[in-house]
């Protein structure tokens, strides 16, 4: 009966005081003070337009385009207001300019989703980078450039009064980054003092948000790529306008970006991919190769390093190996964090992705959308990941679209060489709704005895009582499985035999499950569910024996 209120209190207890204060302000006082501006009569946009975001394309006939199209998810509309398409050469300069002018006319100050702080932050940076590519300061005094600059200043002033200190993390980074861009580009003498204060705040965020191993502290690979791209935006600004950023910030940006590039290179998967842990999707951030190319173009003094044979990002929480015969393995074992902002967390601890021959075999479910509903709940659940569930409960108490109450704790995580290969060992404590002191320890490794390669997964579940246990494997859509009378599964990729999968002491069921490598894209795939009921402590295990 008290589950809802108790869960909410557990969630709020992890927040910082200023987050709580801002939540009270935004949810209680602020809406009463804000007046909804009148929407002006805006001339129709006279050209046909087509936009494609989140694997959904929408076309607008001449005269019918608007900035809040009916029937679209909020994230799709956000993308429309980000103006990332200013980087797309498919849109002629005249059309880009017309879209900017139309946005200014159709979106009065404070009105609609386009004025929310996060879209405002991304749009300001995209407009300012576009401005410098197409005339910059030399054209700023003439129309329509002067009107655009005036709108940029108005948006920046609005943003400075609506910083997302109730969210923090990547949102707050984008807020500060946008304001530094505006101050450095349009600030003039009057804005220098303000810029200095913004740079101090940004410096603090760099030190807090990027871990010692170079990973971003939300421990979500695609957000790591997004924030790395943001660092490169600031370095580009510094190079385009020498001396406009302080030397301290410039040095910190270079050092942080270099470490973040090394971390990305360490976790990079074959096919220009990264692990889909937490809220990661391949279309939500630049791919590794694009980030490397941009870093090289900017002349950071960074060279693309050889990838390590063992992956050990202890702070970011990704482990694994690279082997010519055993493939590439990426394993999730990192803190649910940051403590005060775990919104992109999934129940994927001790889950893994496995590539063989440069192509995916076992994959993470990914993320389909941020809209509330059963699919959002599913992709965050333990059942959507290649790990063990206890009594059908979750590793961490995820709820809503971005909330987490009680969190699983990582007790151990590491990877080491063995006599015949490499082995990962990790352990977590979680599943609070199922009982107290429930632990999951996983050994995941490979043995290469020369005659053949075996991938093994050994799970130890400890606690007290009898429980229903399930362990899952989600296979890439290109993978099919066949079951023989001896209880062995045969794994094929496009009808080519690649491995046998042997399980022990469990009931197996092959079920349909979604694979969501990009927003808005749910591909049909197959998930093997291995179930048993037993008293704890107990052991579960399965092995892949690779074809020669």
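Q: What amino acid sequence fits the structure above?
A:
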């Amino acid at each position: 009966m008290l589950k809802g209120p108790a869960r909410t209190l557990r969630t709020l207890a992890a927040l910082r005081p200023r987050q709580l204060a801002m939540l009270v302000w935004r949810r209680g006082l602020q809406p009463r003070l804000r007046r909804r501006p009148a929407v002006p009569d805006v001339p129709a946009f006279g050209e046909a337009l087509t936009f494609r975001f989140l694997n959904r394309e929408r076309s607008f006939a001449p005269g019918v385009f608007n900035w809040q199209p009916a029937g679209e998810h909020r994230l799709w509309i956000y993308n429309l207001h980000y103006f990332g398409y200013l980087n797309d050469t498919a849109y002629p300069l005249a059309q880009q300019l017309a879209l900017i002018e139309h946005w200014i006319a159709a979106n009065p100050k404070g009105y609609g989703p386009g004025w929310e702080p996060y879209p405002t932050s991304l749009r300001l940076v995209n407009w300012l980078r576009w401005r410098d590519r197409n005339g910059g300061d030399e054209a700023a005094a003439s129309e329509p450039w002067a009107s655009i600059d005036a709108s940029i200043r108005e948006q920046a002033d609005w943003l400075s009064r609506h910083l997302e200190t109730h969210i923090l993390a990547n949102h707050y980074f984008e807020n500060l980054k946008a304001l530094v861009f505006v101050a450095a580009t349009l600030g003039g003498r009057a804005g220098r003092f303000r810029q200095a204060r913004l740079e101090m705040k940004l410096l603090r965020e760099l030190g807090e948000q990027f871990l010692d191993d170079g990973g971003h502290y939300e421990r979500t690979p695609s957000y790591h790529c997004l924030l790395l791209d943001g660092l490169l935006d600031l370095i580009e600004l510094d190079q385009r306008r020498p001396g406009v950023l302080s030397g301290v910030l410039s040095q910190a940006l270079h050092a942080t970006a270099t470490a973040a590039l090394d971390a990305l290179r360490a976790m990079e998967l074959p096919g220009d991919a990264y692990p889909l842990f937490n809220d990661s999707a391949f279309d939500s951030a630049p791919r590794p190769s694009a980030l490397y190319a941009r870093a090289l173009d900017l002349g950071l003094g960074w060279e693309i390093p050889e990838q390590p044979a063992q992956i050990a990002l202890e702070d970011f929480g990704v482990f694994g190996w690279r082997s010519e015969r055993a493939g590439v393995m990426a394993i999730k074992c990192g803190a649910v964090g940051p403590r005060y902002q775990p919104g992109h967390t999934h129940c994927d601890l001790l889950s893994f992705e496995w590539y063989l021959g440069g192509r995916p075999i076992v994959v993470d479910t990914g993320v389909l959308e941020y809209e509330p509903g059963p699919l959002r709940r599913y992709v965050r659940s333990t059942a959507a990941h290649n790990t063990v569930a206890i009594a059908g409960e979750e590793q961490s108490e995820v709820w809503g679209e971005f909330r987490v109450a009680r969190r699983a704790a990582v007790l151990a995580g590491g990877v080491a060489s063995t006599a015949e290969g490499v082995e990962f060992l990790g352990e977590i404590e979680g599943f609070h709704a199922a009982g107290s002191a429930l632990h999951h320890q996983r050994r995941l490794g490979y043995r290469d005895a020369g005659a053949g390669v075996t991938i093994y997964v050994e799970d130890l579940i400890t606690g007290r009582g009898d429980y229903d246990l399930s362990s899952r494997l989600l296979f890439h859509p290109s993978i099919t499985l066949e079951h023989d009378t001896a209880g062995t599964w045969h794994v094929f990729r496009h009808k080519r035999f690649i491995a046998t999968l042997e399980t022990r002491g469990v009931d197996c069921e092959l079920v349909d499950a979604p694979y969501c490598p990009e927003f808005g894209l749910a591909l049909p795939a197959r998930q093997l569910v291995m179930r048993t009921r037993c008293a704890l402590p107990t052991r579960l295990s399965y092995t892949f024996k690779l074809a020669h």
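Q: And what stands out in the fold?
A: The two ends are 57 Å apart (CA to CA).
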